[in-house]
Amino acid sequence: MASAPPVKSGSGPPPPLPPGVARSGGPPPPPGMKALHSKKDTKLKRSKQMGNLYRLLKGKVEGSSLNGRTSHRKKTGSNSGGNSGQGMADALAEITKRSSYFQQIEEDVKNHSAAILELKSSIGSFRTKDMTDLTKFHKQVELHLEKLTDESQVLARFEEFPTKKLETIRMAVALYSKLEAIATTLKSWKVVSPVAQQLEKIESYFNKIKEEVDATDRNKDEESKRFKSHNIELDFSVLLRIKESMVDVSSNCIEVALKESKEAREAAKEVKSKSGSPSKMLWRAFQLAFRVYNFAGGQDERADRLTSELATEIETHPQI
């Protein structure tokens, strides 16, 4: 018995089914599903219909496979220029400058010694699971360190100062703040008509955050181990909040798209705009939903219902 041709792994969708031929079994689990299986408190679940709907609609609307998009990163190299020789005057000026500079460092060591010793103790003993406490502590530390002429030079004068832990605290705060900002942006996103303009903005933002969130999700176990070695337990549940909020934004977009499409049909006239035909606009909304589905590793009941309604609307809407 001949088996179906293997589906090539990658970011692109599988090829459409020939007319009249049904594929056995459901669609393959999207990336990220492994992570969702370990999370019992998420509302995102694998859809039984999403993959099949995507393949069928792609063949109906486009008639051919979508072209995969490959992002190319320009590699930039740094050219080190040769050091030009300095005249005697420049050399003397440099010596004077450095002398003044190191004098200031010694003054910082003397004037801020008590505060730095206190920081040494508080940073060394700091431990937390609370992101609010982490952010607050980080701000307090930076308020002291920003007063120094050269932080690394001054702290080097204090034996066994926990420099590595200080950098770990900074990394943890930077990572969490960035993820929290994404979650907040998605949570407060309002989708309004016209949906074509919203799709532009949503797709642009999704493309911007997807790679970074995916990379963080892949490396979170390694990062978590690094942070824990310094008694910091970063709250990576923010990743799940980002995925759930992205699904909500996509669903809101579908609702507006369906509303606009039905209003156009009720008006009994064809609507033409810069965004293309209504059917193409609906298909674009479905494509976004499918990408978000794979990104999130599933979708909730609302998204499952809306994508089904959207598929029906695409099939029944007159083509232009």
Automatic annotation (TrEMBL):
Q: Which InterPro entries match?
A: CHUP1/IPGA1-like (IPR040265)
> What residue spans carry the Low complexity bias annotation?
1-11
Which keywords does this chain's UniProt record carry?
Answer: Coiled coil
* Annotated stretches, region: Disordered: 1-87
Identification of the protein by name: Hydroxyproline-rich glycoprotein family protein
Its domain of life reads Eukaryota
Biased region (Basic residues) positions are 36-48
